[in-house]
Amino acid sequence: MAVIGELIKRAIDFTGMITSDPDPVHAQEKVLRNLLETARLTAFGKAYGFTQILESDNIIEAFQSAVPVHDYDKLHGEWWHYLLEGHQNVTWPGGQQYFALSSGTTSNSKHIPVTDDMLNSIRRAGISEITNINAFNLPGDFFTKQILMLGSSTSLIQKDDHQEGEISGISAANLPTWFGGIYKPGREIADIPDFDEKIKRIAQEAASWDIGCISGIPSWVELMLKEVINYNKVANIHEIWPNLMVYTTGGVAFEPYRKSLEKLFAHPLIYIDTYLASEGFIAMQKRPDTSSMALFPENGIFYEFVPFDNDHVDEDGLVRPDAKAFSLANAEENVEYVLVISSVSGAWRYMIGDTVTITDKQKAEIKITGRTKHFLNVTGSQLSVNQMNDGLRVIEKEYDVVIKEFIVAAVHRGDDYIHKWFLSCDKSPDKVKVAESLDNTLMENNKNYKVARGRALKGVEVELIPEEIFYKWSEETKKLGGQIKIPRVMKEPDFLEFAAFVEKNLGSL
After folding, report:
1. pLDDT (0 to 100) of residue 4
2. Which pLDDT does position 10 carry in this prediction?
3. How many other C-beta atoms are found inside a 10 Å radius of the C-beta of residue 508?
């Protein structure tokens, strides 16, 4: 098997030698032209004059002038709801076989169309991920090992003329035949809809597998690994899977989970970040000397960047109608942007809710900085999720604790506002001192927050709770596992409901 692995590795190396990354700016213009040509006779394409846009000297500027930016509610309310009713040729040619369900924080419930072209785009990105792995200098043996993909159920919901499920489940249900030999947990277990039952079955089968790579959202992967370790009565996961070398993460920031995950390993893994959203495979980490991820400039997605500031984004986290958008050609490095995409899923100038910075324009590399609605600015504090995460890493070091999950909101204390935090914590430091440390750290690193603390923001409170509370809330109010992510910022009414849930359930743990 080692010989086979070396042959595969050499084939991947050879493929890399004869292919090179395209010029991202030229590739992006070509992608947009292909998108417009393919969809010009759809209802959307006719309504917004795609044929005329294609005749323009500058199709990017013409496209941006003709087509408004959409959030999910706008695109669904005006166009995508027709797809759910069985209409064809609405925003992309043909009908609709799949819809990706998402209960993300930008909308309570989403049905994202997943076209055949989108599935092909995701497959191409996945193959690119595999062929690019030679950049991480893995031994030939790695390519003979199995890949454990922990996602949502591949048993999709049949609705009239289409099927529904989370994007990870839809993608796994459409894996190419050749991949079946190395894919775990296999379709039988992947079909199980109940997350707890799924990881129990994985734990029962784990000893018979030879896993080299695991993939999934960190919080759910950690729960799965703990179940495997406990069921098999071993000290760490490498006693079950000695050849485990790689973890491809995604969905949320990995760093908050690194410390607790590495307690489950005999040695750290190679971590490769990926960016698979319900709307498509957006980017992946291509090289080991950076934590940034490279966009796919020629894979069916046209990217735009809207500055994430008050001039371009309103208080609800939505792009303003007159906002200036930049293509990759004229966007700048190290500026925080709202990411907007047009794609082979029939999404047009669609904000998926993430904010990013471009870290290397020539390589088309980005970092996710947060969510447009995971941004706390009720009192002018202008706190991004990245700043919150950075502040909590300081708290972890200062108090020697692990904080993986948190939710924060601006809530009333009389006529004033305070920031109230719920933090998962593996120990019990003084919560008043933790609040003071967090407050001071944020003031040191965010001048807007410091100004707000002297004006409208009158205090900071912290509650330290077990991380299981967050997962129990997620399970009861949404669904455990898959692409489901815990929101970081809530509006006051939702936060008070969460606080009531915490109070009710604390005694049961």
Report:
1. 45
2. 53
3. 8
Query: Among 352, 369, 386, where does a domain finish?
Result: 369
Q: Are strands 162-165 and 157-159 parallel, antiparallel or unpaired?
A: antiparallel
Q: Which of 349, 369, 389 is the last residue of a domain?
A: 369
Q: Quick one: tokens of 316?
A: 């609800």
Cα 273 to Cα 129, 197, 207, distances in angstroms: 10, 27, 27
Which pLDDT belongs to residue 18?
41
SS (H, E, C) 337-370: EEEEEEECCCCCCEEEEEEEEEEECCCCEEEEEE
Q: Which residues contact 416 (CB under 8 A, 6 or more apart)?
A: 456, 458, 459
Considering the domain architecture, whether residues 256 and 127 belong to the same structural domain is answered as: yes
State both tokens at 205.
């089968």
Domain that holds residue 406: 375-508
Q: Are residues 240 and 159 in the same domain?
A: yes
Same domain, 257 and 223: yes
Banded pLDDT at 277 (limits 50, 70, 90): confident
Q: Kind of pairing, strands 416-424 and 293-295?
A: unpaired
Instruction: Please answer whether residues 8 and 140 qualify as being in contact, where contact means their C-beta atoms are separated by less than 8 angstroms.
Output: yes
Which residues lie across from 283 on neighbouring strands? 275, 295
Q: How far is CA 273 from the centre of its chain?
A: 10
How is 64-102 classified by DSSP, letter by letter? HHHS--B-HHHHIIIIIHHHHTT--SSSSSS--SEEEEE
In whole angstroms, give the CA distance from residue 307 to residue 336.
Answer: 6
Location of structure tokens 């004006």: 455
pLDDT at 366 over 90: yes
Distance CA(71)–CA(354), nearest Å, equals 12
> Hey, what are 136's tokens?
């991480």
pTM for the model: 0.79
Q: Is the pLDDT of residue 42 over 60?
A: yes
Give tens-digit pLDDT for 48-84.
999 999 999 999 999 999 999 999 999 999 999 999 8
CA distance 387 to 403: 15
Q: Which residues contact 300 (CB under 8 A, 6 or more apart)?
A: 31, 34, 35, 117, 118, 120, 121, 280, 343, 344
**Better-predicted residue by pLDDT, 454 or 344:** 344
> What are the structure tokens assigned to 476, written together?
């009861």
Quick one: how far is CA 75 from the chain centroid?
20
Q: Same domain, yes or no, for 183 and 324?
A: no
Q: How far is the C-alpha of 332 from the C-alpha of 354, rounded, in Å? A: 17
Helix-then-strand count for the chain, H and E: 18, 21
Residue type, 492: E
In this structure, the number of other CB atoms found within 10 A of the CB of residue 77 comes to: 11
